[in-house]
Amino acid sequence: MNFSYLVSIFGQLSDGLKFTVGLFFVTIIFSVPLGLVLSFIRVGSHKIIQRILGGYIWLMRGTPLILQLYFFYYGLSLVTSIQLSRFNAAIVAFILNYAAYFCEIFRGGLLGVSKGQYEAAKVLGFSTLQTNVRIVIPQMLRITLPSVANEFITLVKDTSLITVLAIDEILNLAKKIVNTDVNISAYAVVAVYYLIATFLLTKLFEYLEKKFAY
Question: In whole angstroms, what is the distance from residue 189 CA to residue 170 CA?
Fold first, then answer.
């Protein structure tokens, strides 16, 4: 395998990292807080709101992410006057999809916090906000950390799905390089990228799990 050729592949694939890495971080920044807010709504709201939210979660989790990508880019303009760019359509689909998963993960964590914690906080004079921020959420995060780690790692790999919208992320660029050069080395380089990314996330969450293991 030619080393100089591999270096040239890295250079060509670097242009796609802005989409791959950008989509990952934008999805995390928006889907995690949204999922957290939705989990509180799902646990404590009126039954009608819970059912509406349950329908949203069922839809997002029950249909393939790739189908949601097609809808937000091709289908949304057919039912509304909104026409999203390819990358913006991917961002919306990923945020809504992952928020649904994080909502259910966090909901499970909230249900795992003992009711006695709420009662003790009330006795101590804590407000609802103080109770959630200082007592409930830290315990919920400790409970849900392994599941959240799995979602982060899954997201790294799912970013490759935006190739169906002809976005030049690293996998799509690798496919173009392979077709042009008739050499599958580009796929090996992409595999190394995903392996490194998942390895770093695994080590990060292992550290966090040890830190919160009290």
Answer: 10
d(CA 57, CA 101): 8
Instruction: Work out the angle between the directed axes of helices 86-111 and 3-44 (0-180°, nearest 10).
Output: 50
How many Cα atoms are found within 13 Å in the side-chain-facing hemisphere of 52?
7
The Cβ of residue 118 has, within 10 Å, a number of other Cβ atoms equal to: 16
pLDDT in tens, 150-165: 999 999 999 999 999 9
Cα–Cα distance for residue pair 19/159, rounded to 1 Å: 9
**CB-based contacts of 118, cutoff 8 Å, min separation 6:** 131, 135, 136
Distance, CA of 54 to CA of 124 (rounded, Å):
34
pLDDT tens profile 8-62: 888 888 888 999 999 999 999 999 999 999 999 988 767 888 899 999 999 999 9
* 53 in Cβ contact with 38 (< 8 Å): yes
Domains delineated in the chain: 3-211 (1.10.3720.10)
- Judge whether 166 and 86 are in contact, CB under 8 Å: yes
Model confidence at 117, in pLDDT bands (50, 70, 90)?
A: confident
